[in-house]
């Protein structure tokens, strides 16, 4: 398991440079589109949490710890829900303001 963790860490480190380029390109496109930074940053954080939680869960599954892997996936989903809460609040407020009689 230590070898798997070491190998995955090296791959993730090498992958980080490519991810930085991708994130820079997404931010550039968002600035061209005039999108708010709150939305873009939140989406990027949620995607990052999803990747990391899946990565850690797969390591746990490879080690035979299926129950721990399931808990890690649930924890990742809960963190994502906490991250998107401000965006969800803005979305609900926008929808309520569009309703007639308000």
From TrEMBL:
List residues traversing the bilayer: 78-99
State the InterPro entries in the record.
Answer: Spore_III_AC/AD
Question: What is a single Pfam family found in this protein's UniProt entry?
Answer: SpoIIIAC
Keywords in alphabetical order: Membrane, Transmembrane, Transmembrane helix
Q: Which organism is it from?
A: Domibacillus enclensis
What highest taxon heads this organism's lineage? Bacteria
- Lineage of source species: Bacteria, Bacillati, Bacillota, Bacilli, Bacillales
Name the record gives this protein? Stage III sporulation protein AD
């Amino acid at each position: 398991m230590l070898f798997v963790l070491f190998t995955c860490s090296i791959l993730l480190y090498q992958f980080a440079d490519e991810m930085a380029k991708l994130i820079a390109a997404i931010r550039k496109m968002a600035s061209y589109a005039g999108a708010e930074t709150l939305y873009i940053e939140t989406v990027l954080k949620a995607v990052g949490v999803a990747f990391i939680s899946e990565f850690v869960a797969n390591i746990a599954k490879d080690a035979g710890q299926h129950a721990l892997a399931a808990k890690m996936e649930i924890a990742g989903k809960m963190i994502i829900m906490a991250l998107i809460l401000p965006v969800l609040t803005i979305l609900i407020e926008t929808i309520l303001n569009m309703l007639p009689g308000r």
